[in-house]
Give the backbone structure.
Amino acid sequence: MTLKVEHLVGGYSSIPVLKDISFEVPSHSLVGLIGLNGAGKSTTINHVIGLLRPMKGTIELNGLSLQEDAAAYKNKIAYIPEIPVLYEELTLKEHLELTMMAYQLDPKEAWQKANRYLKIFRLDNKLDWFPINFSKGMKQKVMIVCALLPKVELLLVDEPFLGLDPLATHDLLMLLDEEKQAGTAILMSTHVLSTAEEVCDSFVMIDDGQLLAAGTLADLQEQSGQSDASLSKI
Ligand code: ATP
């Protein structure tokens, strides 16, 4: 199962933000999407999850178009957004139940997984809490737990480390590595290179909506060395 983005042109209006982006994320791999503020990382992810339609180019998962064959991907993609989005009127328990229903998970198996993740992120005694009771980092953890409940083919993660404490960052890295080992293709945008370096197999570096370099950090350093958006500035 490989995510293949080819010659993607897209954005929010008729003026493209992404000008010509191509990269791949194979299964069993975690690819870091890096670039300066405004480079187009979230916009790229928004196209992959279908929030935005490409103006040109293709986005395929295992050879099927994510736009034209969307039904084939039902329950096969999960997404952890940069800004947590929770339902104010639902408790943590209800958010988990909603996720289980949406992905049609077996409740017994899903609760086993959920209980493990809740314990890891120290949310296990907060099942009856509403979002208003949670800090930003705690909300982020709730989003992570929900996204990890289903077994998906493709996991998209947008800037996961910004609101997380060091312990939670360590725990998330461990869980992402688990997902990767289980076969999931993971695309993660981040600014925190030192942390990403621990788990990412390769990187895609974009600048002003264009692919600047791809490969290992050493490859990127070499390929982007002459650019204004060199690695040292990210
Ligand atoms: P950051 O590191 O700050 O999160 P990013 O690399 O994720 O940045 P994007 O959020 O993808 O960057 O933004 C890329 C460009 O698209 C920017 O010029 C931004 O102003 C523009 N943009 C982002 N969101 C919207 C929107 N909803 N409507 C119009 N333009 C947008």
Notes: Strands lie at 3-10, 18-25, 29-34, 56-61, 64-65, 77-80, 154-158, 185-189, 202-207, 210-215. The CA atoms of residues 75 and 103 lie 5 Å apart.
